[in-house]
Structure formats: structure tokens, C-alpha cells
Specification:
The chain is an alpha/beta fold and 398 residues long. Helices cover 38% and strands 21% of the residues. The protein has helices spanning 10-16, 56-64, 157-171, 175-195, 200-234, 252-256, 262-275, 277-283, 311-333, 350-363; strands at 21-30, 33-39, 46-49, 89-97, 100-108, 122-125, 128-130, 142-145, 245-250, 294-299, 304-305, 338-342, 367-371, 385-390, 393-397.
Length: 398
């Protein structure tokens, strides 16, 4: 008899049909962990407590690397290695996911010599190499909310674009490839413009490619915003403790997508790029396109930009966005994603904290939450698996 068939685990068995679930997480020479393993007995909340700096965020960062992209801190791969190790690190997880039982693993090998550069990141599924972490999306989707996102609405548009691209990536694993292709194409165009006497045929070719990938990026963002708007509207009457956001994209290309074909918008952007060569050369960068668009969030009931809301309201708006996004992923894939909530509950009042726990329970996802104060999890600790983090070790709290 395995854990899924034990008495009292009917809810666990039900959740496995609708939520991705980590059964065992193993870290080797990762951040503050020389070696650590976390085993889960059931699907449900996972609470990580411990003093600040103990390694709670490091542990959920390891989970975030089991999704396309560079993880929740977006650092270089060599920064993830244990300080007293040989430069290598590894993260693996046994999961019940969208394709059944599987093992996902990622990491880097130690440098081959004193003068060798850091090895490239490797990704494996069931111990077989795959091209990149993009392949993990067939098994698992991961969504996170961290304190670094708190100033999102007051920060630069680039941070909101990055946040939106993360939302898109969770529903479309190829999105990061398109964004990277757009960035490369824009860099190539900028270099040609800097040269001053570049062959116009080369510029035409670069701008042709730039327009194609730019419209693809804009279309993917617009589709996700439309879907997410629908998910928000569908839950308008739920969790009133979290204010309703209205979201939109601010960019001419995105505004044309509903009324014009991709080919028409591509042609328009190519003409714009050609007309603006002198201006862009003087600026040293391309001044128009989806790489300049903004993700706009409005506090619906007050009718004001999220940037003008209070700090507490901004946090609540962000939580509502993330919860709606998780629901959207569940609707699109049939499986709730893993949620990683880093130091989220500590700054919520009791009513919002209880509302968050209720919303997470209704979603049915495996949620990993961190916090320094165990008392903050009093309302959920009875249905959660709790672990204490201490200087590179993980200890279950019974």
C-alpha cells in the first residue's frame, strides 16, 4: 500500500488528478545546502520556517529552476553553487505531474580545470538529457510571488514587462525563446546602426526578422492578458479581501492586434524601423516596439492606477493577479501549478491571511510558503507539512 492509498488520504488522491505535486526534493551543493532532502507525505500546503538567512528562499529557488527560465532570482548559474563546494550543483525532484510520475533534474558540472569556465546548465527528465528547462513545462508549471515583486507597480516598465513575460511563460513555454530572439535581433540592428555606413540590405534583413518576432511577442502577451482578464472577471465575487485589478497592455502594436492581421502589423513596424534609423542611431537603441510596452494595472473599485494605491493594496492586488494566473493555468492544462509564496503571509492582516488560505485550498495546488514567524501560519498549520530550516538543514516539524 503506497501513501496515496493510505486511509485519510482521499483528498490527496483527488488533488493528484488536478495538481502537480513534488513527492521528494533533493539539493546537492545548492546555495546554502551541501546536501538536503525534503519528502512530502501528501498534496497540500508546505510551510518552511526559520530565521532570516537560514535558507528558506534558497530552497524554493531550487524548485523554481524546475520551470523554464532562470529561476525566481534570475541569477547566473555559477552563483547557485555551494560556497564550499567544487562549483557544481544539482536539484532534482520526484513529481506526480502532468505526465504522471517522473523525475526532473537540473544543475551544472564542476569546471574541468582551474582556467575552465563554468559548465553550462544541464536538464534531465527521468535521467535522460533534454535540450533545456523548457521541456519541464510538459510535466510541471510553477508560479511564484516574492518580496522583490512588491515595488512592481511603482518601478520601471521593464520590470512589469518581465513580470508579464513570466506569466506568459507559465502558459506558453516557448515564449522565452521569442523574447530572447527579439532581444538578439534588436541588438544586431543597434550594432549596424552604430556602424553608420552599414549596407542597407543588411538593415532591411534585420528589420524584417525583428518585425516578425516583435509581433509574435506582442501577440503572446496580448493573448495572456486577455485570458487573465477573463480569469479575473470569473472570480470577481470571490475573495473580496483582495481588490480586483483591471489589466491591459499599453503599446500601439498590442492595440492593433484585434483589428489588423499579423502581416499588416509587421509591415507597419518594418516601415517604422526604416523611417527611424537616424533617430535610433542617435539614441543608441531602438525607441519603438513591444520592448517598450507597459503592463498596466488599475485598482478597479477605486479607478486609480495600482501605483497610486497604498502599499497594502498593491500587495493584495498582486496576490489576486497571481491567484488568477494559477487558476488560468489549471483551466488551460487541467493541472494546478506549484505555487511558491516567499514571505507573503507575514505582511497580511488576519482577514486577508485567512482569505488567502481559503483561496489556496480551493485551488487545490501544492503551495510552498516561507516565513520567519511560525505563528503567521497558525490558521493553516493543521493541514500543512511544516519544516524548520536551519543553516543548510531541513527538519520536519511534527
Amino acid at each position: 500500500m503506497d501513501g496515496r492509498d493510505k486511509p485519510g488520504h482521499d483528498g490527496y488522491k483527488t488533488h493528484l488528478m488536478t495538481a502537480a505535486f513534488i513527492q521528494r526534493l533533493t539539493l546537492t551543493n545548492f546555495r546554502s545546502y551541501h546536501a538536503a532532502q525534503v519528502s512530502l507525505e501528501r498534496a497540500g500546503p508546505v510551510v518552511l520556517t526559520g530565521a532570516n538567512g537560514a535558507g528558506k528562499t534558497n530552497l524554493i529557488e531550487a524548485i523554481s529552476l524546475l520551470a523554464p527560465g532562470r529561476g525566481l532570482r534570475r541569477v547566473t548559474m555559477d552563483e547557485l553553487a555551494f560556497s564550499e563546494g567544487d562549483g557544481s550543483w544539482a536539484v532534482s525532484a520526484e513529481i506526480e505531474g502532468m505526465m504522471g510520475l517522473s523525475t526532473l533534474g537540473t544543475g551544472i558540472d564542476p569546471p574541468a580545470g582551474e582556467d575552465a569556465t563554468t559548465s553550462s546548465r544541464k536538464c534531465r527528465i527521468d535521467r535522460e538529457s533534454v535540450g533545456s528547462a523548457t521541456a519541464f513545462a510538459e510535466h510541471l508549471r510553477v508560479v511564484w510571488l516574492t518580496p522583490s515583486m512588491d515595488p512592481l507597480f511603482n518601478g520601471p516598465a521593464s520590470e512589469r514587462r518581465r513580470f508579464l513575460d513570466r506569466l506568459v511563460l507559465a502558459v506558453d513555454a516557448q515564449h522565452s525563446s521569442r523574447v530572447s530572439a527579439l532581444e538578439r535581433s534588436l541588438r544586431s540592428r543597434n550594432r549596424l546602426l552604430e556602424e553608420g555606413n552599414s549596407d542597407p540590405h543588411w538593415l532591411d534583413a534585420i528589420e524584417h526578422e525583428t518585425a516578425e518576432v516583435a509581433v509574435a511577442v506582442a501577440a503572446a502577451r496580448a493573448e495572456t492578458v486577455n485570458r487573465l482578464s477573463g480569469a479575473l472577471v470569473a472570480t470577481r465575487d470571490q475573495s473580496p479581501e483582495f481588490p480586483m485589478p483591471e489589466i491591459a497592455l499599453d503599446g500601439w502594436m498590442e492595440k492593433l492586434l484585434p483589428s489588423q492581421s499579423a502581416r499588416e502589423i509587421e509591415d507597419r513596424y518594418r516601415a517604422l524601423l526604416k523611417d527611424n534609423r537616424v533617430r535610433d542611431a542617435a539614441a543608441g537603441r531602438t525607441l519603438d516596439g513591444p520592448h517598450r510596452s507597459d503592463f498596466v494595472v488599475i485598482h478597479a473599485s477605486k479607478g486609480v492606477p495600482a501605483a497610486d494605491a497604498s502599499t497594502g493594496e498593491q500587495k493584495a492586488l498582486l496576490i489576486r493577479l497571481v491567484l488568477a494566473h494559477a487558476r488560468l493555468i489549471k483551466e488551460m492544462t487541467g493541472f494546478a501549478p506549484l505555487l511558491l509564496l516567499d514571505e507573503v503571509v507575514a505582511h497580511l492582516d488576519p482577514a486577508r491571511r485567512a482569505a488567502l488560505y481559503d483561496a489556496l485550498s480551493a485551488l487545490g495546488a501544492q503551495v510552498w510558503m516561507t516565513g520567519a514567524d511560525p505563528a503567521a501560519f497558525g490558521d493553516i498549520v493543521g493541514r500543512a507539512e511544516v519544516f524548520e530550516i536551519q543553516a543548510g538543514s531541513v527538519r520536519p516539524v511534527r
